[in-house]
Amino acid sequence: MIAEYEEHNYLIKDSDIAKWTNRYLSWLDDKEKAQLKALHDEGASFDELRETLEEFYAAAEGRRLVRANRLLREGCTALAEHLLGKEKTAKYIAIVKVLASFEETFHNQRDDLLSSIDLGFKRDVALNFLDSCDAVFHASSRSDRQNGLEHDEF
């Protein structure tokens, strides 16, 4: 299915591209399918193919988005089962669902906090910079946990 041929670059067999396109990427229009195939034929990396697919997904709306969600979930499940097996895939999917629920709760609570700031300069600053601060707090917290540090130890 997928084989690593260089560090973090993956080779996808031509037969797999056709199979995956016909089965899990059938929500793409003909132009997008042709663009993805051309990238593959030109030797695009797995990351380049994934980024292009993510762009197509981000542009999807309405029924097309619903279909894309369903088919991509099926494709991701098939890939995970190929890599992890059915039992570990079930556990992986459960973990991802918990994370998604947590992220939704986090964003809702953060949005509530932001809405408490009066319109104006302060709110504009908050809207422009807090996403970056979220990333910093997340990364530093993860680093602290990996290194066994607490915030008060600095």
Please explain how this structure is put together.
- Pfam families: NPA (PF16469).
- The protein is built from six helices and two strands.
- Helix 2 packs antiparallel against helix 3 and helix 4 crosses helix 5.
- The chain is 75% helix and 6% strand.
- The mean pLDDT is 81.
- The protein has helices at residues 14-23, 30-41, 46-59, 62-84, 86-115, 121-147; strands spanning 2-6, 9-12.
Annotation keywords:
single chain, 154 residues, mainly alpha, two-stranded antiparallel sheet, 6 helices, extended, DVA-1_sf, ABA-1_nematode
Q: What is the CA-based Rg, rounded?
A: 20 Å
Average pLDDT number: 81
Helix- and strand-based class? mainly alpha
Number of strands: 2
Largest sheet, if any? Answer: 2 strands, antiparallel
Global shape: extended
SSE string:
EEHHHHHH
- The proportion of residues forming helix, as a percent range, comes to over 70%
Residue share in β-strands: 5-15%
Total number of helices:
6
Q: What is the oligomeric state here?
A: single chain
End-to-end separation in angstroms reads: 47 Å
Organism: Plectus sambesii
Protein name: Polyprotein allergen nematode domain-containing protein
Pfam families: NPA (PF16469)
SSE order and pairing:
Blueprint: E1 2-6, E2 9-12, H1 14-23, H2 30-41, H3 46-59, H4 62-84, H5 86-115, H6 121-147
Antiparallel strand pairs: 1-2
Helix pairs in contact: 2-3, 4-5
Concise account of the structure shown:
This is Polyprotein allergen nematode domain-containing protein. Residues 17-137 form the Polyprotein allergen nematode domain. By secondary structure, the chain is mostly helical.
